[in-house]
């Protein structure tokens, strides 16, 4: 039996399908995130742990576990890929993100930008079902 002669699309853990995802940028691999961004993320994680500990002391140890289960269930509930993005309103309500005032609230939604490439519905479903690798939306690689 002959071995199949195929060329792997993945080299070094990076998806290299230029027709589907566009050309790969090297700048994002070299330049790290901004120091304030990493500081903000670490502070957010610390505040989350403090909040979990406070809830465990106040309502018992099962309450933070129930909140984690709710968060996991609500993070899986999404619309199929297509023109209408999933709002994830349930997850935002549970995590308290409805009260946050982000950049998209006063600047612009990234989906409305001129450089946004529309989502390929077929590829999005392939990624979700595990038939293909890569980001669901090629604009946010």
TrEMBL record:
A Gene Ontology biological process in which this protein takes part is: proteasome assembly
A Pfam family: UMP1
Q: Does the keyword Translocase apply?
A: no
A GO CC annotation given for this chain = cytoplasm
Which keywords describe this protein according to UniProt?
A: Chaperone
Q: Is Lipid metabolism one of the keywords?
A: no
Checking InterPro entries in the record gives:
Ump1
Which superkingdom, per the lineage? Eukaryota
Family note: Belongs to the POMP/UMP1 family.
User: What name does the UniProt record give this protein?
Assistant: Proteasome maturation factor UMP1
State the organism of origin. Answer: Trapa incisa
According to the entry, what is the taxonomic lineage of the organism?
A: Eukaryota, Viridiplantae, Streptophyta, Embryophyta, Tracheophyta
